[in-house]
Amino acid sequence: MIQFVLGESDLVDVRFAVSPLSELTLSLRVLKNPAKYPLHVPWARQIRGVDTEVLLALSTDRGWTPDFLSPRPLTPFTHVEDEFAELREVSTRTMRRHFRALFGDVPDALRDRHRVLDAVESYWHEALAGRWDRMRAVLEADIAHRGRVMAQQGLAAMFSGISERITFMSPVVQVRIAGALPRRVEAGGRGLTLVPSVFARRTAVPVDPGAPPLLIYSARGAGTVWETGCCRGPEALAGVLGQVRADLLAELAQPWSSTDLARRTGVTTSAVNQHLRALRDAGLLASQRHGRSVVYARTELGDALVSHSVERGSDAGDSSFART
Fold first, then answer.
1. pLDDT tens for residues 226-249?
2. Residue 26, SS3 per DSSP
3. Dist CA 139 CA 195 (whole Å)
4. For the structural domain made of 235-323, what CATH number should be given?
5. Distance from the CA of 54 to the CA of which of 34, 135, 275, 302 falls in 20 to 30 A?
Protein backbone atom coordinates (compact mmCIF):
# COMPACT_ATOMS: atom_id res chain seq x y z
CA MET A 1 0.00 0.00 0.00
CA ILE A 2 1.30 3.43 -0.97
CA GLN A 3 0.23 6.20 1.39
CA PHE A 4 0.45 9.93 0.68
CA VAL A 5 -0.01 11.92 3.88
CA LEU A 6 -1.36 15.39 3.13
CA GLY A 7 -0.96 18.30 5.51
CA GLU A 8 -3.29 21.30 5.60
CA SER A 9 -1.42 23.11 2.82
CA ASP A 10 -1.30 19.91 0.74
CA LEU A 11 -5.05 19.42 0.92
CA VAL A 12 -5.58 22.70 -0.90
CA ASP A 13 -2.76 21.86 -3.31
CA VAL A 14 -4.22 18.71 -4.86
CA ARG A 15 -3.91 19.62 -8.52
CA PHE A 16 -4.22 18.07 -11.96
CA ALA A 17 -1.71 18.29 -14.79
CA VAL A 18 -1.22 16.92 -18.30
CA SER A 19 2.25 15.69 -19.25
CA PRO A 20 3.18 14.71 -22.82
CA LEU A 21 6.43 13.12 -21.59
CA SER A 22 4.57 10.96 -19.07
CA GLU A 23 2.24 9.79 -21.85
CA LEU A 24 5.25 8.94 -24.01
CA THR A 25 6.79 6.98 -21.15
CA LEU A 26 3.61 5.08 -20.32
CA SER A 27 3.08 4.22 -23.98
CA LEU A 28 6.29 2.18 -23.84
CA ARG A 29 4.27 -0.42 -21.94
CA VAL A 30 2.22 -1.01 -25.08
CA LEU A 31 5.37 -1.66 -27.11
CA LYS A 32 6.68 -3.97 -24.40
CA ASN A 33 3.54 -6.05 -24.00
CA PRO A 34 0.85 -5.18 -26.57
CA ALA A 35 -1.35 -8.12 -25.53
CA LYS A 36 -2.18 -6.26 -22.30
CA TYR A 37 -3.30 -3.17 -24.21
CA PRO A 38 -5.59 -4.38 -27.02
CA LEU A 39 -7.22 -0.95 -27.46
CA HIS A 40 -3.85 0.56 -28.41
CA VAL A 41 -2.62 -2.20 -30.72
CA PRO A 42 -3.90 -0.52 -33.94
CA TRP A 43 -1.88 2.58 -32.99
CA ALA A 44 1.24 0.56 -32.11
CA ARG A 45 1.18 -1.26 -35.45
CA GLN A 46 1.60 2.02 -37.30
CA ILE A 47 4.89 2.95 -35.57
CA ARG A 48 7.94 2.85 -37.83
CA GLY A 49 11.53 4.06 -37.80
CA VAL A 50 12.21 4.11 -34.04
CA ASP A 51 15.05 2.67 -31.93
CA THR A 52 13.09 -0.30 -30.62
CA GLU A 53 16.05 -1.75 -28.71
CA VAL A 54 16.34 1.34 -26.51
CA LEU A 55 12.59 1.90 -26.16
CA LEU A 56 11.89 -1.67 -25.05
CA ALA A 57 14.81 -1.56 -22.62
CA LEU A 58 13.30 1.46 -20.84
CA SER A 59 10.44 -0.58 -19.40
CA THR A 60 10.42 -3.61 -17.10
CA ASP A 61 8.26 -6.64 -17.82
CA ARG A 62 5.79 -5.22 -15.29
CA GLY A 63 5.66 -1.91 -17.15
CA TRP A 64 7.66 0.15 -14.67
CA THR A 65 9.85 2.91 -16.11
CA PRO A 66 12.61 5.20 -14.71
CA ASP A 67 11.38 8.24 -12.81
CA PHE A 68 13.35 10.80 -14.84
CA LEU A 69 11.06 10.02 -17.79
CA SER A 70 7.95 10.92 -15.77
CA PRO A 71 8.82 14.16 -13.95
CA ARG A 72 6.13 15.94 -11.96
CA PRO A 73 4.59 18.59 -14.25
CA LEU A 74 5.09 22.09 -12.87
CA THR A 75 2.21 23.61 -14.85
CA PRO A 76 -1.28 22.26 -15.59
CA PHE A 77 -0.69 21.90 -19.34
CA THR A 78 2.98 21.22 -19.97
CA HIS A 79 4.48 21.63 -23.43
CA VAL A 80 6.55 18.71 -24.68
CA GLU A 81 9.32 21.05 -25.85
CA ASP A 82 9.77 22.26 -22.27
CA GLU A 83 9.82 18.71 -20.96
CA PHE A 84 12.42 17.66 -23.52
CA ALA A 85 14.55 20.68 -22.58
CA GLU A 86 14.45 19.57 -18.93
CA LEU A 87 15.14 15.97 -19.94
CA ARG A 88 18.31 17.02 -21.75
CA GLU A 89 19.48 18.61 -18.49
CA VAL A 90 19.27 15.30 -16.62
CA SER A 91 22.84 14.14 -15.94
CA THR A 92 24.23 10.77 -16.95
CA ARG A 93 24.79 10.04 -13.27
CA THR A 94 21.12 10.65 -12.43
CA MET A 95 19.93 8.56 -15.35
CA ARG A 96 22.12 5.65 -14.35
CA ARG A 97 20.99 5.92 -10.72
CA HIS A 98 17.38 5.62 -11.85
CA PHE A 99 18.24 2.68 -14.13
CA ARG A 100 19.91 0.84 -11.25
CA ALA A 101 16.95 1.53 -8.94
CA LEU A 102 14.64 -0.05 -11.51
CA PHE A 103 16.72 -2.77 -13.19
CA GLY A 104 19.46 -3.44 -10.63
CA ASP A 105 22.06 -2.38 -13.21
CA VAL A 106 22.32 -0.28 -16.37
CA PRO A 107 21.14 -2.33 -19.38
CA ASP A 108 23.59 -2.36 -22.29
CA ALA A 109 21.11 -0.64 -24.62
CA LEU A 110 20.83 2.29 -22.16
CA ARG A 111 24.52 3.00 -21.52
CA ASP A 112 24.77 5.68 -24.21
CA ARG A 113 22.98 8.75 -22.84
CA HIS A 114 22.72 10.50 -26.21
CA ARG A 115 21.25 7.42 -27.83
CA VAL A 116 18.58 7.22 -25.13
CA LEU A 117 17.60 10.88 -25.53
CA ASP A 118 17.58 10.67 -29.33
CA ALA A 119 15.45 7.51 -29.23
CA VAL A 120 12.88 9.12 -26.93
CA GLU A 121 12.55 12.33 -28.96
CA SER A 122 12.39 10.47 -32.29
CA TYR A 123 9.72 8.21 -30.85
CA TRP A 124 7.62 11.23 -29.84
CA HIS A 125 7.69 12.70 -33.33
CA GLU A 126 6.98 9.37 -35.04
CA ALA A 127 4.39 7.87 -32.72
CA LEU A 128 2.66 10.59 -30.72
CA ALA A 129 3.13 14.16 -32.00
CA GLY A 130 0.52 13.86 -34.75
CA ARG A 131 -1.99 12.34 -32.34
CA TRP A 132 -1.36 14.58 -29.35
CA ASP A 133 -4.28 16.99 -29.91
CA ARG A 134 -6.76 14.14 -29.72
CA MET A 135 -5.06 12.63 -26.68
CA ARG A 136 -4.94 15.98 -24.93
CA ALA A 137 -8.66 16.53 -25.54
CA VAL A 138 -9.44 13.26 -23.74
CA LEU A 139 -7.11 14.14 -20.86
CA GLU A 140 -8.53 17.65 -20.49
CA ALA A 141 -12.07 16.28 -20.55
CA ASP A 142 -11.15 13.91 -17.73
CA ILE A 143 -9.75 16.78 -15.67
CA ALA A 144 -12.94 18.78 -16.23
CA HIS A 145 -15.00 15.84 -14.98
CA ARG A 146 -12.82 15.27 -11.88
CA GLY A 147 -12.96 18.96 -11.07
CA ARG A 148 -16.75 18.94 -11.16
CA VAL A 149 -16.91 15.87 -8.91
CA MET A 150 -14.49 17.43 -6.43
CA ALA A 151 -16.44 20.70 -6.34
CA GLN A 152 -19.82 19.01 -5.94
CA GLN A 153 -19.00 15.94 -3.81
CA GLY A 154 -15.59 16.50 -2.24
CA LEU A 155 -12.12 14.99 -2.37
CA ALA A 156 -13.09 11.51 -1.19
CA ALA A 157 -15.62 11.05 -3.99
CA MET A 158 -13.16 12.38 -6.55
CA PHE A 159 -10.42 9.97 -5.47
CA SER A 160 -12.70 6.92 -5.29
CA GLY A 161 -14.05 7.79 -8.74
CA ILE A 162 -10.55 7.61 -10.23
CA SER A 163 -10.03 3.96 -9.26
CA GLU A 164 -11.26 1.36 -6.83
CA ARG A 165 -7.59 1.06 -5.83
CA ILE A 166 -7.59 4.58 -4.37
CA THR A 167 -9.17 5.63 -1.09
CA PHE A 168 -9.01 8.92 0.80
CA MET A 169 -9.50 9.18 4.55
CA SER A 170 -8.22 12.62 5.48
CA PRO A 171 -5.35 13.27 5.57
CA VAL A 172 -4.17 10.05 3.84
CA VAL A 173 -4.54 9.02 0.20
CA GLN A 174 -4.01 5.25 -0.09
CA VAL A 175 -3.11 3.58 -3.40
CA ARG A 176 -2.94 -0.18 -3.93
CA ILE A 177 -0.34 -1.12 -6.56
CA ALA A 178 0.44 -4.80 -7.06
CA GLY A 179 4.10 -5.61 -6.50
CA ALA A 180 5.03 -2.20 -5.08
CA LEU A 181 6.69 -2.12 -1.66
CA PRO A 182 4.56 -0.45 1.02
CA ARG A 183 5.60 3.10 1.88
CA ARG A 184 4.31 6.19 3.60
CA VAL A 185 5.16 9.50 1.95
CA GLU A 186 4.76 12.78 3.82
CA ALA A 187 3.77 15.43 1.30
CA GLY A 188 5.34 18.09 3.48
CA GLY A 189 3.93 21.10 1.65
CA ARG A 190 4.65 19.71 -1.83
CA GLY A 191 1.00 18.98 -2.57
CA LEU A 192 -0.19 16.06 -4.68
CA THR A 193 -0.21 16.11 -8.47
CA LEU A 194 -2.73 13.93 -10.32
CA VAL A 195 -1.88 13.11 -13.94
CA PRO A 196 -4.52 11.45 -16.17
CA SER A 197 -3.20 9.10 -18.85
CA VAL A 198 -4.45 7.49 -22.03
CA PHE A 199 -2.00 4.60 -21.64
CA ALA A 200 -2.17 3.84 -17.90
CA ARG A 201 -4.25 0.75 -17.21
CA ARG A 202 -4.70 1.51 -13.52
CA THR A 203 -2.47 3.71 -11.36
CA ALA A 204 1.24 4.51 -11.12
CA VAL A 205 3.49 6.36 -8.66
CA PRO A 206 7.21 7.24 -8.71
CA VAL A 207 9.69 4.45 -8.02
CA ASP A 208 11.69 6.74 -5.72
CA PRO A 209 9.93 7.04 -2.33
CA GLY A 210 11.52 10.46 -1.87
CA ALA A 211 10.08 11.89 -5.09
CA PRO A 212 7.39 14.61 -4.90
CA PRO A 213 3.90 13.09 -4.48
CA LEU A 214 2.60 12.12 -7.93
CA LEU A 215 -0.23 9.83 -8.96
CA ILE A 216 -0.84 8.80 -12.57
CA TYR A 217 -4.20 7.22 -13.39
CA SER A 218 -6.26 5.98 -16.33
CA ALA A 219 -8.34 8.75 -17.90
CA ARG A 220 -12.03 8.39 -18.70
CA GLY A 221 -12.64 7.82 -22.39
CA ALA A 222 -9.10 6.58 -23.04
CA GLY A 223 -10.47 3.69 -25.09
CA THR A 224 -12.02 6.12 -27.59
CA VAL A 225 -8.86 8.06 -28.39
CA TRP A 226 -8.11 6.17 -31.61
CA GLU A 227 -11.72 6.08 -32.84
CA THR A 228 -12.47 7.98 -36.02
CA GLY A 229 -16.15 7.20 -36.49
CA CYS A 230 -19.04 9.49 -35.67
CA CYS A 231 -22.11 8.70 -33.62
CA ARG A 232 -25.26 9.24 -35.65
CA GLY A 233 -27.83 11.42 -33.95
CA PRO A 234 -31.35 10.00 -33.58
CA GLU A 235 -33.59 10.77 -36.58
CA ALA A 236 -36.20 12.44 -34.39
CA LEU A 237 -33.55 14.76 -32.97
CA ALA A 238 -32.09 15.49 -36.39
CA GLY A 239 -35.55 16.50 -37.59
CA VAL A 240 -35.58 19.30 -35.02
CA LEU A 241 -31.93 20.33 -34.75
CA GLY A 242 -30.52 19.26 -38.10
CA GLN A 243 -28.28 16.24 -38.64
CA VAL A 244 -24.97 17.92 -37.80
CA ARG A 245 -26.16 19.27 -34.45
CA ALA A 246 -27.85 15.98 -33.64
CA ASP A 247 -24.59 14.16 -34.41
CA LEU A 248 -22.59 16.54 -32.23
CA LEU A 249 -25.00 16.10 -29.35
CA ALA A 250 -24.77 12.32 -29.71
CA GLU A 251 -20.95 12.46 -29.74
CA LEU A 252 -20.94 14.48 -26.53
CA ALA A 253 -22.00 11.57 -24.36
CA GLN A 254 -18.48 12.25 -23.09
CA PRO A 255 -16.66 15.60 -23.20
CA TRP A 256 -14.74 16.63 -26.34
CA SER A 257 -13.08 19.74 -27.70
CA SER A 258 -14.30 21.33 -30.95
CA THR A 259 -11.08 20.30 -32.71
CA ASP A 260 -11.63 16.67 -31.83
CA LEU A 261 -15.31 16.81 -32.77
CA ALA A 262 -14.32 18.22 -36.16
CA ARG A 263 -12.07 15.21 -36.76
CA ARG A 264 -14.71 12.74 -35.66
CA THR A 265 -17.58 14.23 -37.67
CA GLY A 266 -15.75 15.44 -40.77
CA VAL A 267 -17.15 18.96 -40.30
CA THR A 268 -14.82 21.97 -40.32
CA THR A 269 -13.73 23.29 -36.93
CA SER A 270 -15.24 26.73 -37.55
CA ALA A 271 -18.62 25.17 -38.40
CA VAL A 272 -18.45 22.88 -35.39
CA ASN A 273 -17.78 25.87 -33.14
CA GLN A 274 -20.86 27.66 -34.50
CA HIS A 275 -23.06 24.63 -33.88
CA LEU A 276 -21.63 24.09 -30.39
CA ARG A 277 -22.29 27.68 -29.40
CA ALA A 278 -25.89 27.38 -30.57
CA LEU A 279 -26.37 24.15 -28.59
CA ARG A 280 -24.78 25.75 -25.54
CA ASP A 281 -26.99 28.85 -25.82
CA ALA A 282 -29.99 26.53 -25.90
CA GLY A 283 -28.88 24.97 -22.61
CA LEU A 284 -28.03 21.58 -24.13
CA LEU A 285 -24.25 21.86 -23.62
CA ALA A 286 -21.86 23.28 -21.04
CA SER A 287 -18.31 24.41 -21.83
CA GLN A 288 -15.16 24.83 -19.82
CA ARG A 289 -11.76 26.18 -20.85
CA HIS A 290 -8.64 24.12 -20.15
CA GLY A 291 -5.42 25.67 -21.36
CA ARG A 292 -5.77 26.38 -25.05
CA SER A 293 -8.85 24.21 -25.50
CA VAL A 294 -12.53 24.56 -24.70
CA VAL A 295 -14.15 21.27 -23.72
CA TYR A 296 -17.88 20.71 -24.25
CA ALA A 297 -20.18 18.28 -22.47
CA ARG A 298 -23.92 17.63 -22.48
CA THR A 299 -26.02 19.15 -19.71
CA GLU A 300 -28.77 17.19 -17.99
CA LEU A 301 -31.19 18.74 -20.47
CA GLY A 302 -29.00 17.58 -23.36
CA ASP A 303 -28.81 14.07 -21.93
CA ALA A 304 -32.57 13.97 -21.47
CA LEU A 305 -33.21 15.17 -25.04
CA VAL A 306 -30.94 12.54 -26.59
CA SER A 307 -32.31 9.75 -24.38
CA HIS A 308 -35.92 10.73 -25.12
CA SER A 309 -35.23 10.85 -28.87
CA VAL A 310 -33.68 7.38 -28.78
CA GLU A 311 -36.60 6.00 -26.80
CA ARG A 312 -39.13 7.60 -29.15
CA GLY A 313 -37.30 6.12 -32.12
CA SER A 314 -37.35 2.70 -30.53
CA ASP A 315 -41.06 2.97 -29.70
CA ALA A 316 -41.86 4.00 -33.25
CA GLY A 317 -40.00 1.01 -34.58
CA ASP A 318 -41.86 -1.34 -32.26
CA SER A 319 -45.32 0.01 -33.08
CA SER A 320 -44.58 -0.06 -36.80
CA PHE A 321 -43.65 -3.71 -36.53
CA ALA A 322 -46.82 -4.47 -34.57
CA ARG A 323 -49.02 -2.95 -37.27
CA THR A 324 -47.63 -5.05 -40.15
1. 766 556 667 878 888 899 999 898
2. helix
3. 9
4. 1.10.10.10
5. 135
